[in-house]
Amino acid sequence: MDGPTEALLLHRVRRAGRVCDVLLAGGRVVAVGDDLRAAATGLDPLGAVEVVDAGGAVLLPGLVDSHVHLTQWAAARRRVDVLAATSAAEAADLLARHAGPGTDLVLGHGYRDALWSGPAHRDVLDVRFPDRPVVVVSADLHAVWVNSPAAARFGVADPTGVLREGPAMELIAAAGDVGEATLDRWVAEATTVAAARGVTGVVDLEFAPIGTWSHRARPDVRIAAGVWPQWLEEAVAAGLRTGDAVPGAPDRVRVGPVKFVVDGSLGTRTAFCHDEYPSGGHGVLRIPLAELEPGLRRATSHGLTAAVHAIGDDAVRVALDGFEATGARGSVEHAQQVHPEDLPRFARLGVLASVQPRHAVDDRDAVARHWPRGAERAYPYAALRAAGAELRLGSDAPVAPLDPWDALASAVHRSLDEREPWRPDQHLPLDVALAAGCGGRRGVHVGDVADLTLVAVDPARAFADGGADALRRTEVLATVLGGEFTHRAGV
C-alpha cells in the first residue's frame, strides 16, 4: 500500500440479535467478532483506527430508496404545500395564504384532485391571483395546473390550465428552473436530510441529463442517476453503462437505468388499465410495445438496464412483454395494478418489482373511486412476493416522503388513520420489507460494502411493541457510507 487506509471500528453493536464488534476498512466490512479493539489497533496496514462505542445500537445494512426524483424533492421542500386541499378552491386559498407578498412566480406542490368534487381549473386560481403567475404541480408529478398569467408566460394553450404527462413534465422543469447553483445547493441539502434517515443510496429518476451531476458537490448518499430516452443517445455515444462513474461527477454518482414511461398515474387517471375508468377511457398508453421494444434493445445492447414506469395492469403487461421480447434487465417501476397471470412473469424474466408502499396507503380511496373493477389487482405486494418476484422499496419522492421508515411501515401495515388496514392480505412480512428497503441486502456480513445504518431499536421489536407508527418514528443514530459517517447523532 502507498499509505495507511483509514479504518473504523464499531464497538458493541447489535447484529443479528447479539452484541459484537464490526471492523470497517477500505470501504468494506473486513471483520466481525466479539471484541476487535486489540486486533484493530494491531493491524499496522490499517494505520490509525477510529473506535466508536455504539452502546448496543442495532446495525443494519444501509437503506436504499429505489425510486426518487431528487431535484423535484429538493425543490418541493421549498414550494407551497397544498396536499391537504380537498378542493380546487381550498388549494387556491392555501396558495394565497402562504405565497407571501410580491409579483414573482408562485410555485405550489402536491394537489390531489382524484377525490375532488370539481376539477382543477385556471379560473379558480385567477380569482386569488389575477395578475401573479401561479404553477401548481400535482402530487404524482403527472399533471400541472396554472392560472392565466402563468399560461401566458409558459405558452399553455389548454383553456383549463391543466397539462398532463409529457407536456406537464416539461412545464414543471421550466417553471422550477431557479438556476444551477441554487438547485445544486438544494440537492446537496436534500441528500444530507436523506442520510439522517439512514439512507445510503437512491435511484434518481429525475427528468434531466445525468451530466447535471458534473457540477454538483459530493452527495451524502450514493446516486444511481437515471437516463431518460431523450438523452439515451448521448449516453451511448459516451460509452456509458449502468454502474459506470458519471464523467466529471463526484465519486458517489454512477450511471443508473434508462427510464421508460409506459403510462400515466392513478391520481391523474392516466394509468393504462384493462377496465374502463368510471369517467370513461382506459388511461394513456404513452409508449406502446412497438416503441418500447427498440428502446429496450438499444439500452440493453449498450450495457444499460431499464426502469420501466408502468402503473395500470395493461401497462405492466406491456412492460413485461417488452422485457420478454428483448431480454432486457431491470425493473418495473410502481406495478400498482397487475393481472394475476402476470405475477409470475417477474420472477421468470428476472425483472424487479420496484414499489412505493406509501402510495398504497395514500391511494386507497382513489382506488375505490377510479378502479372499482380492478381494486382486487391493486398494490399486490404479497402476491408478487408469493409468485417469486424480487421487490425493491422506494418513495417516488416528492410524491411521498423520502423516508425509508415510512415506506417500511406502509409495506407492513396499510393504514395512516383510524381505519382498518386496506387489503391486509397484501402486507409484507417485516423481514421481507426490510431487505427490499436495503436494496436486497439481508444483514451485515464480512466483505459487504460498508454502507450501514445504526438505529436505537431493532425494527422487529419496534413494530411488535408499537406497530407501524413506531417504525415510522425509528431513531437513526448514525449512517455510514463506504466506511465514512454521513450522519452521526447518537454514537
TrEMBL record:
UniProt-listed SUPFAM superfamilies: Composite domain of metallo-dependent hydrolases, Metallo-dependent hydrolases
The species this protein was found in: Kineococcus radiotolerans (strain ATCC BAA-149 / DSM 14245 / SRS30216)
Pfam assignment, any one: Amidohydro_3
Domain of life (superkingdom): Bacteria
UniProt-listed InterPro entries: Amidohydro_3, Metal-dep_hydrolase_composite, Metal_Hydrolase
GO terms of molecular function: hydrolase activity, acting on carbon-nitrogen (but not peptide) bonds
Domain Amidohydrolase: 50-486
Protein name per the record: Amidohydrolase 3
Coiled coil ranges: none
